[in-house]
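Reply to dn_fold:

You asked what the input looked like. This is it:
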Amino acid sequence: MKIADMHCDTISEIWESRKIGKPQQLFQNSLHVDIQKMQTANYLLQNFALYIDLKKGIDPFAYVLELVDVFQDEMQKNEKYICPVKTYGEIIANEKQGKMSALMTIEEGGCCKGEIQNLETLYQLGARMMTLTWNYPNELASPNIFDKDSLLSAKGFPIFDASVGLTERGFLFIERMEELGMIIDVSHLSDAGFWDIAKHTKKPFVASHSNARALCGHARNLTDDMIRVIADRGGVIGLNCYGRFLNAVNDDSSSVARLAEHARHILNVGGGECLALGTDFDGMNGRLEMQDCSQIYKLVRELEHKHFTDNEIENILSQNVMRVYKELL
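and this is what came back:
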């Protein structure tokens, strides 16, 4: 079975490694994702998120352009194995040539500094998906979690304010994103922001790396009502491997058994076409049963053990994402 993963932070990790003078390479590295590991796992597609931390004190648009340069440089160096894509047709063409595909995405809409022109520039450079926020409020919207020093609930999760949604500029951005064909990603967004997008958009949207809040009360996860809305709209939810988004208490251990429980819950609520992979590899720490992307077979075995059908597993691994990309890209 082919693998299509909606979220990893590998490019940002490579950028960080270059900054400290110990550069990692996409072909082979000590991170969760590299070319060799992807080949072992039989990858069709990897979304490479350009993650921007607004608190680094760098001009955020200059920052994201540096990440674009890293993405393009690594794609050029590894063109025998993987090629950047902007359309569904390019994914299929790469597959026929025996190559994997790389889709550029943006994690933190604040990198645009509220300027539509910057959004359009990122689209022209190849970005085809974007979260409006990361963990800080910006010109577009608010997240559910504002910082790591938030008060904690009894179960150890940060207490969050879900009531602040999109700004006026944020509404302009989602309108332009739909016009361009850039997929709206609601991971990290506040609850109010989620419902603003559900009400004011027409196309499918995604949560690239979020789990079920019914099983793990972390603010980053989706309520059952949110799962139903994404499913009804024809979007997908990327199953996230980070332990703090999996467990009933604030615990960073990640097991395939717990991933399978979230998968079953999301399918039960939203149906068989709403779930995909959004591993969050290279964007998390903790104790990982799947230590890198070459070990996704462990999840497949667990899903088989938990009586997921071959069709359900194939849909989760790649087919549901490909359906959405066929419609939107």
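The mean pLDDT is 96.
Hope that clears it up.
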